[in-house]
Amino acid sequence: MFLIECPWCGPRDESEFDCGGEAHIERPADPAELSDEAWADYLFMRTNPKGRHRERWVHACGCRRWFNIERDTVSHRITAVYRMGRKPPGRR
Amino acid sequence: MTKYSIFSLLRHARHHHEKWPRAWRSPEPKGSYDVVIIGGGGHGLATAYYLAKEHGITNVAVVEKGHIGSGNVGRNTTIVRSNYLWDESAAIYEKSLKLWEGLSQELNFNLMFSQRGVLNLAHNQHDLRELARRVNANRLNGIDSEILSPEQIKAFCPILNTSPAARYPVLGASLQRRGGTARHDAVAWGFARAADALGVDIIENCEVTGIRRADDRAAGVETTKGFIKAQKIGAVAAGHSSVVAAMAGLRLPIESHPLQAMVSEPIKPVLHTVVMSTTVHVYISQSDRGELVMGAGIDGFTSYAQRSGLSTIEEMSAACIEMFPITSRLRMLRQWAGIVDVCPDASPIIGMTPIKGFYINCGWGTGGFKATPGSGWAFAHTIAEDRPHPLAEPFALERFSSGRLIDEHGAAAVAH
Question: Does residue B312 belong to any structural domain of this protein?
């Protein structure tokens, strides 16, 4: 359980939100040219890191808008909240 | 190994049970092993045991970052069953259940395996049809399974609220009578003791920090106790599988989620079976100490923190009271979470990897405990023979690129 700072509604309980999984997975530009392995990587393979993770959330019981967050998967501390389509802050 | 029996119990009673020897040694790691197993949970220990017993490979180390029993093997809700839908799953889970049936004798350790039956409830027409389909599939695969009417359910489990006026009325259930529970700590200890007696080194408090490769082969593991050379490496790290695989440069189709459970204060025997409901969502049994043991669905986000949360506790309690109104004033004793490795098709990954000598066994997600002996059996064969055991073959990592997924979300019984 933790608080999430919705970009539109402010800090709310995590139970109001749904997690949409890992962020920044882009649909392949030319699917017809893709190998089965590359498809599998896009569809199924996940980074699943222990530590800093970037993921999509939706404020399902609030404004129902999507956004990205950067969260530590051990401490659950959220270090950034940024809108869809934006690059994560401080991307190395 | 001291054989446990009524005689050894009497012998040690004379010393007030203060002189029992250690159940397994506590060796320092050797420089090199034929096989290193990463992860001393149930599946890892079972793998080491069957490597030694069935394949004669005894130069084996099990490397565990905590102590034996500290991970998911000691955090599950101890349910054992084999009523899975597809042939591939039915085969491996049923193999596992058959192994369970003789395991206490084989390991000379009382696993308190109790075939008290597992009820899966249906609360709507869709549930009922899915249940009937699964029962039929089970019977075609030689797995005992039957459908009970609400009246039969009430007779079998009187404290269950089967009133048609219930918010989620019980319309029917499947019952696998050979299913049941086992004491999970005993499973870990029993396999550890038996593997140790066959020469396996169980190295506790030793975390793997890296995997060394020589060209396309695995060469050994870097640990907090130094480098250990290995001919073959088996990674059985459950919730941390992605982390271990990343050390070898592999990506897995796995996400790690907390799965929560809790137990009540001990009460007199009221529930002699296991009751599972995917619709109201709780699965519940009564331990031999009298505690009601209940489990939840996974938390909706990835996490490596073994912590529980109040909203899940509330949901579990609400479901429990809905199904068993007599529990409304029951107090809860403790709650916890384990980190489970969830696969997109709710089936495990057992087999080879693109790296020679590096094998994986993971993705058991919310239902790995029941598979402990079968998983170890099939994985030991895969490592020893360097080719997948027939039971493991359908569960290869390649299924995610071939598209031959084994969708067991219905039988998994835990919401993903």
Answer: yes
